[in-house]
Design a protein that fits this description.
By secondary structure, this protein is α+β, with helices and mostly antiparallel strands. Helices cover 27% and strands 8% of the residues. It has 2 domains: 81 residues; 36 residues, no CATH class.
Length: 157
């Protein structure tokens, strides 16, 4: 069986030698909804954070009438699909490799489908990072099928 190795460019500048293609497998765009439920987990994992989070949660409810729901909250990365594709491509090209870029937003394929309309990105694979529930979940939280443009809710992210 062939032996695999992992090389790091910052440790070994010669790491790309002998290869023709560089692959970017994980990149997000403004089409992605990145859940914030990890913040609640921080409060559970690091007891010193719980008082801070509690204070901010109470302030949100007091000042804005909004009860914080980490599982339903998300942030959106700032880069458009084309900017993310170009950035990833350029980084690979800088080390003299042909780029293959996969945009894997959370729970939708909007970015790769948009990019397929752009000549320079027409060959992009259609990829998705599918949020799948794990642990102690309420029944019916996750939907079983992925449809273009649909969001599938869950707690992994």
């Amino acid at each position: 069986m062939a032996q695999s190795t992992i090389s790091y460019l910052w440790r070994d500048e010669k790491a790309p030698q002998g290869f023709r293609t560089g692959v970017s497998l994980h990149s997000h765009t403004n089409q992605s909804h990145e859940t914030l439920d990890f913040l609640a987990n921080f409060g559970n994992q690091y007891p010193w954070m719980r008082p801070l989070l509690s204070r901010l949660e109470q302030r949100s409810e007091r000042m804005h009438g909004v009860k914080v729901d980490y599982a339903a909250s998300y942030w959106t990365p700032p880069m458009t699909p084309k900017l993310a594709f170009d950035l990833e491509s350029r980084q690979i090209e800088k080390i003299d490799l042909a780029p293959m870029v996969s945009i894997s937003d959370h729970d939708n394929i909007n970015a790769p489908m948009l990019l397929r309309t752009v000549p320079s990105a027409r060959q992009i694979p259609v990829s998705v990072e599918w949020t799948a529930p794990y642990g102690n979940q309420s029944p019916g939280r996750a939907q079983p099928a992925q449809r273009q443009g649909d969001r599938v809710d869950g707690d992994a992210g």
